[in-house]
Design goal:
- The protein has 386 residues and is an alpha+beta fold.
- It folds into 2 domains: 175 residues, Diaminopimelate Epimerase, Chain A, domain 1, CATH 3.10.310; 180 residues, Diaminopimelate Epimerase, Chain A, domain 1 (Roll), CATH 3.10.310.10.
- It has a 19-stranded mixed sheet that branches. A two-stranded antiparallel sheet has the order 14-15.
- A hairpin with a 2-residue loop joins strand 19 and strand 20.
- The protein is globular.
- It starts with a strand and ends in an 8-residue tail after the last strand.
- The model has no long low-confidence stretch (mean pLDDT 95).
């Protein structure tokens, strides 16, 4: 017989995840890993025997549990897992901002947090980074609202706006917002040479480089970048060098093995007209403050990661970073980022302090929807010795 586990599938922003409760999973780490891999159908590039969607944006996991005893301000814990598709691994190092937006709605619908109209603020302790997230969920008739006029490029239709504030995650992965203390570092990358990069850590750690330093315009489509295997290898080598410089891995050459999801690599450029990959329309230069393309899990992100949105926004407010250099500076807290499927905005408040910068606000607006709740059946052989 197969083991039966309750699950919920939710979309958060431009990603989709399987939500599981911590109490329903084995405490043994290896047994838990093998069970989760069977839930998703990994390793298999189609994930045909599980719930995974055969894409990094749909092979995501959220484990929800009770609040930790030493964090009384939190209402629940949230552990994010990026489930590998064709290898039997789960990356626990990163945080998905898109899926984070669905955590509050899930907790309210599951009765873990009492709803309060018109807006319920859910304080979430994220175990990946050891930091707090504040998720503001709109409420209608005692339930998380899903209908609304807020549009997320890359998601069909519209929904109710959920706001997630990541300000508390600054420096969580590396110990500092600017891990090296510098707005710009020079990385020596084997086979490529020396290249300037800005290393910034909020939401997730990021490596930002200029598109023109790679011989790119910055407005290339995701497909154009992904079909250039030599370019993708160069981008991964740069990401690995940045990860090593930040102390996240021991050897740059082992970046894909040791930390495939983070840091995320952002390729930034000045505002420009470009073609929207999904809608087939044109994004105009005056509609954005900069253009960016992300490398996530060794592929070009089809839209823009939630944590990358807040990290890009914060980096744009720090004088001297490559993001600040290419961004149009407007006298307001919002930043408009042009990505392959449209435009995403973030509201950022950063202030200089002695020895660096303090982040007071780093928000992401998303929508979320509960798609399915039910039982996933896991074969008994999952928990046998590997």
């Amino acid at each position: 017989m197969a083991e039966a586990i309750k699950c919920v599938i939710m979309r958060g922003g431009t990603s989709k995840a399987v939500f599981l409760k911590e109490a329903d999973l084995p405490q043994d780490e290896d047994a838990r890993r093998r069970l989760i891999l069977r839930v998703f159908g990994s390793p298999d590039r189609r994930q045909i025997d599980g719930l995974g969607g055969a894409d990094p944006l749909t092979s995501k996991l959220a484990i929800i549990g009770p609040p930790p005893a030493d964090r009384p301000e939190a209402q629940l814990t949230y552990t994010f897992g990026q489930v590998e598709i064709d290898t039997p691994e789960i990356d626990w190092r990163s945080l998905c901002g898109n899926i984070s937006s669905a955590v509050g709605a899930y907790a309210i619908e599951e009765g873990m947090v009492a709803p309060s109209q018109p807006l319920t603020r859910v304080t979430v302790f994220n175990t990946n980074l050891g930091r707090l997230l504040s998720v503001e969920v709109p409420i209608t008739d005692g339930h998380p609202a899903e209908r609304g006029d807020y549009v997320v490029p890359g998601v069909p239709g519209s929904g109710a706006r959920i706001s997630v504030d990541f300000a508390d995650t600054a420096g969580a992965a590396t110990g500092a917002l600017l891990p090296t203390g510098n707005p710009v570092d020079r990385l020596d990358v084997p086979g490529i040479g020396s290249i300037e990069a800005s290393l910034v850590d909020i939401g997730n750690a990021h490596v930002f480089v200029r598109a023109r330093d790679l011989g790119l315009k910055g407005t290339e489509t995701a497909a154009e970048i992904d079909q250039d295997t030599a370019l993708r290898a160069r981008l991964e080598a740069i990401r690995g060098a940045g990860a090593e410089r930040m102390g996240m891995i021991a050897e740059a050459a082992q970046s894909r093995r040791d930390s495939p999801a983070t840091p995320i690599l952002g390729v930034v450029s000045e505002p420009a007209d470009y073609r929207n990959d999904i809608a087939g329309t044109t994004v105009r230069a005056h509609e954005v403050d900069l253009v960016s393309r992300l490398q996530f899990m060794q592929q070009t992100h089809k839209t823009y990661a939630g944590t990358s949105t807040v990290c890009t926004g914060v980096a744009s407010r720090i004088p001297g970073t490559l993001v600040h250099q290419v961004a149009r500076q407007r006298n307001e807290p919002s930043l408009r980022i042009g990505h392959p499927a449209g435009v995403i905005e973030t509201e950022t408040v950063v202030e200089p302090v002695a020895g660096g910068f303090s982040v007071h606000r780093a928000t992401l607006g998303r929508t979320a929807r509960r798609i399915l709740e039910g039982t996933v059946y896991v074969p008994d052989d999952t928990l046998l010795p590997a």
